[in-house]
Amino acid sequence: MNITNHQTGDFTFPVLVADVGGTNARFAIVQDSNDTALAPVITATGDHADICAAIRATVLASGAPQPRSAILAVAGPVTGDRIPLTNAAWVIEPNVLIKQLGLDHVVVLNDFEAQALALPSLKGGAVEQIGGGVMRKNATKFVLGPGTGLGAAALVYAAGKWIPLPGEGGHVEIGAVSDEDQTIWPHIERVGGRIGAEQILSGTGLPRLARAVAASMGLQPHHATAADVTWAASTKDPVATKTLEVFARGLGRVAGDFAMTVLARGGVYLTGGVTPRIDRFLINGGFRASFEAKAPHEALLKSIPTFLVRHPNPALEGLAAYARDPDLFAVDLSGRAWQAKFDMMSLPSG
């Protein structure tokens, strides 16, 4: 069996979909194009030597059907046949997956590309609207996700297809706006001489922001991790509470910038591991007020809806949506898709 690059979006079912992060990997099987029920398996990457071992120990050991194709979402760019994870020891090798698991096709996408693919199918309890605005059908959407870092991607509708546009939007710069910001920003540690949005609007950024807030209040910092900040806020700790208020306003400003940049009349969606832990700060008004405060375009921003994604596994849902109906999407597979090619001369006759 030889390996060749796979350039089409047609998948042989069952399809394994996977959201592979630095800490956890999430797997699910899509049995056919009508299968809407995902039953994810979540496992720590550190518990397995590699992704093949993880799939065997979780998905295949559970009695799930043997997958014929796989679509993976990973944090970071896909630049070759070896794709190392940023925060874990795994190296994703599609050719090895094909050989060891007997797959026909493997596609590897960016994690926020997968998040974007989910947006058209998120309905009902999977999303909660924050503030006003009305979503326009088949209009551009944007997803922004504070997790370990700050992920971002757009989803554009053109020529009858949804086109995901991943990028590094989380690294745009963010400055002080309000009088309160002016007292905090001088205390924020620079990285490479600048303050990027991810440096404060993420799980890794929360302690950095908390240190700056504490300094602006003349207090000693005592929040070493994002979990420390969110837990302390639940006890009405003044530094943690102000940190999350500043965080929500900053996230609103960045979300509003992206909404204007791509004219996201289809809505801006908040996802990521941090958002469900600080949802009350996002819903209480500060986020939406900052989102709309874009003079001279306040009326435009008021018309664009914002949503908190409540779906527990939106990246898996996006990959599953792509597997079920690949013709609904236009996904660039160049250098990011592989298929098994059997040598017909080696097959037995008769």
TrEMBL record:
Uppermost EC category: transferase
Keywords: ATP-binding, Cytoplasm, Glycolysis, Kinase, Nucleotide-binding, Transferase
Gene Ontology MF: a single term: glucokinase activity
Family annotation (Pfam families): Glucokinase
SUPFAM superfamilies linked: Actin-like ATPase domain
GO BP annotations, alphabetical order: glycolytic process
Name by which UniProt lists this protein: Glucokinase
Gene name of this polypeptide: glk
